Amino acid sequence: MSRNTTRQEIVAAADDLFYRNGFDHTSFAHIADAVGISRGNFYHHFKTKDEILDAVIEKRVADRVAMMGRWESAGATPEERILSFVDIVTVNGDKIMQYGCPVGTLTSELAKLNHAARGKANQLFSVFRSWLARQFAAAGHEKAEADRLAMHLLMRSQGVATLLNAFHDREFAAREVELMREWVGAVLALSGDGARSTKTD
Q: I want to staple 133 with a disulfide (CB 3.0 to 4.6 A). Which of 67, 107, 147, 190 is the partner?
């Protein structure tokens, strides 16, 4: 196994363990065991858990950028692309019910720990925010309004994911996702002055 392949396996295992168990409750030993390597070999790749955290955040950002690239390719219109984002709550419903949102749980944990990487972890939200804003702008909304709409949709999605994790209520999540889909359709039906006056409450 090449050094680069081993490193990738370590990061993938850490990504999974940080999501399922939390960053603070995942040790070097847990990650080494998951990959099947010795602690000594582990230290050839990463000296500290913070180094692994940085690599995990970079992987998660890259994975989400790639996912949004697929949405770009598959969606012929801004609405179709935005709805791909809306649907991830139900697409990933099983994991969210068990472990929460992989983006929200990590940023919340690092904030509680006052960890130095908390700002870097916010990139996970920022890539969604920027991408959604571009879609709303492509539909005819001005830059500031497009960003406001992106933040609103991001907030609604996170709220649904949090409550799905808390109550394990699939019907609730499905209803809320449908309401978000309807909201997106209504917002994108507007342009110009109408778009700027769209309400998000």
A: 147
In percent, how much of the chain has pLDDT > 70? Answer: 93
Instruction: Please check whether residues 117 and 187 belong to one and the same domain.
Output: yes
Residues 3, 65 within the same domain = no
H or E element: which one contains 6? helix 3-21
Cβ contact 109:24 at 8 Å? yes
Provide the number of structural domains found in the chain: 2
Q: Are 181 and 86 in contact (CB under 8 A)?
A: yes
Q: What's the whole-model pTM score?
A: 0.92
Alpha helices in 43-191 (DSSP H): 49-74, 78-86, 88-91, 93-99, 102-112, 118-121, 123-138, 143-167, 170-188
Q: Same domain, yes or no, for 95 and 143?
A: yes
pLDDT digits (tens, 9 = 90+) for 155-186: 999 999 999 999 999 999 999 999 999 999 99
Q: What is the pLDDT of residues 37-53, one digit of tens each?
A: 998 888 899 999 999 99
Output the pLDDT for position 191: 61
* Range of the structural domain that residue 10 is part of: 1-47
Q: What gap in Å lies between CA 184 and CA 16, rounded to an integer?
A: 32
Is 201 within a domain?
no
Question: Do 85 and 157 contact (CB within 8 A), yes or no?
Answer: yes
